[in-house]
Amino acid sequence: MIQDVDVNIFYKPLCVRIDHLIPTSPGYCKVVVNGFTQDAFLHDCIVKCGSQSLLSGRLVSQKIGEEFATADVEYNYPAVTFKAVLDGPRGKFTFHSDIVFGIKIIDSADVAYDWFVRVQDIFPYQLLDIIRATGCYLVHKHCLSHHISHDFDWRITFAEAESKLFEYHSDKTALKLCYVVIKFAIKQFSQVKKRSYLALKSYHLKTVVLWIAEQSGKLPFDVYTIDNNSTLGALLSHIISTYRQHLHEGYLQHYFIRGVNILEPYGVEECTAAMHLLDEFNRKPLATVSNFDNANMNRWKFEQFVIVSQLVVVACLCFSCYFSVVGELFVQQIYVVCAVFGLIMIVKILLD
């Protein structure tokens, strides 16, 4: 099992306002940090561009990557990944932690002002206060726009606010299950076809699901129940079709920032390839769900196989030690009994 976790690192002295940001592409900007040219940590990560001093995401990433570099940390720009093998409730699992440098935006509520106005009658005040306090921040991520250098690309992210919203929508079990199934299918088909679908991003799918969750009361789909295969299938098809329609139009409204189209950086070729894959999902919805079930079932069968094998080995060792005085023939008979028992259990696991 592999557990992926993103860890945001914030340099406390560095906080920016909206007027410190130079918009470039939808959701992206450059960061002006004139007041930090002599800062001990940032001074060698700031590049003079005319009258302005811009923060280079590449230089910050390199600095963090070089300082963290150990046997357990991989630095593959722009990612800094910590890897460890830990003990879990069902054995060992691999822990991957992506270390991300973030920049707090002080007046982040102003960035999402239109969103707060729009949803004030949809969500409870307590949730809105939490999201307002959480705010948004900047991370270094390459923009797909065709410009010479990506060193100064910073993306505005509401990742923590999105997590809070997903927690609020936790009662919409069917909707969240469909999100996981589609996300898994995109990843699996990309690996099978050995192709990267640039316009199919988890972030895009998450945005589509958040829009649907907000409008769930007006939809003729059950977003709560997972026991009814018919309604669950209809919801799955609706999400896929909605996502495809956005790709066809080349427009998907940013969930928090009005007027920002998060599909704008993608060309017709990327969107067309993404639509073809989603069409494949819609043509074979049962196969899409079955692949998801089989992946989880195979993992469960493997775990059961390991447990049974360990029990058989332990039983053989115990019998061998305890009955060693009885004679070699009896011990061999015990081995045969354990082997038959283990074989029956393994066959049963495979047939379930």
Structural class: alpha+beta
> Number of DSSP strands?
10
Q: Can you give the helix content as a percent range?
A: 40-55%
Q: First CA to last CA: what distance?
A: 21 Å
Strand composition percent: 15-25%
Q: Average pLDDT across residues? A: 82
Protein traits:
about 350 residues; alpha+beta; eight-stranded mixed beta sheet; two-stranded antiparallel ribbon; 11 helices; globular
Structural features, described:
By secondary structure, the protein is α+β, with helices and mostly antiparallel strands. The protein contains eleven helices and ten strands. The strands form two sheets. Strands 1, 2, 3, 6, 7, 8, 9 and 10 form an eight-stranded mixed β-sheet that branches.
In short, what is this structure?
This protein is α+β, with helices and mostly antiparallel strands. The chain is built from 11 helices and 10 strands.
